[in-house]
Write the structure tokens for this entry.
Amino acid sequence: MTERELPLGRSAVNRAAHRRRDTQWLADAWKRAQVLVVDADGRALVDTSTRPYELILVAADAAPDGDRLFLGEDDEQVYFAVRGELPAETGGPEPHTVRAVGASLGARDAGLFVEAVALANWHDNIAYDPVTGAPTQARDGGWVRVSEGGAQIFPRTDPAMIVLVHDGVAGPAGRALLGRQAEWPPGRYSTLAGFVEPGESAEAAVVREVAEETGVAVTDVRYVGSQPWPFPASLMLGFSALADPAQPIRRVDEELEDARWFTRDEIRAQRDANRVMPMTTSIAYYLISNWLDGII
């Protein structure tokens, strides 16, 4: 079987970082740009009548005022994003979050949407210098903020790990360890995840988080892939790991409401019936689906 693509790991636009400090080029590029408007809830207008879905981009002269966030360029177009209000009209394209529609967008639009949301979220949270408290202003096409004292502040990303723990057994009887948070819809279980702590490798975080959440010791930690998760500013690092299902499950840190082992047949039945699986945009869905198909 063919390995799936990570929905938010796709991109077809060159970020063209060398353009960011060229103020004249940015000013000229804005005049011919296509602009993605993202509202305060991280939504953009999306046409869901097409396959794949399509973002609604507007000309620069129709974009709201705000920091002009340079997203990149391709052979045909230059792209910016602006935080602003979305039209209130109904009957056409409607507001959606990248979490809801990311997996249904094409590579270009998925990449633009997640980049715009991540960058806009960062700007919302860094209006003041975290050291001096001085106001900051956007520079370099939105990729730097500068305080009154000249200090430069760059966007940050918080690394987090997410892991599909399984028993290494092939076929329908193979089992995976999934957990459940209390606030999720009834019956939903997913892969285990947590933030990488200071001074810690991602692999060490996998071992620690699984032990903290379930009491299970894992081995053979293997990197699978990553994707941004801008809610508000994470980078999800996906792994697989092996464990013995005979180990007792103990919810050490009480972060999970429940954790248990599921067979491939049990999980596949849930997926095929469109029941309580993680959202298709998530790396959890990617890890589980690839494990079901014997790819990891």
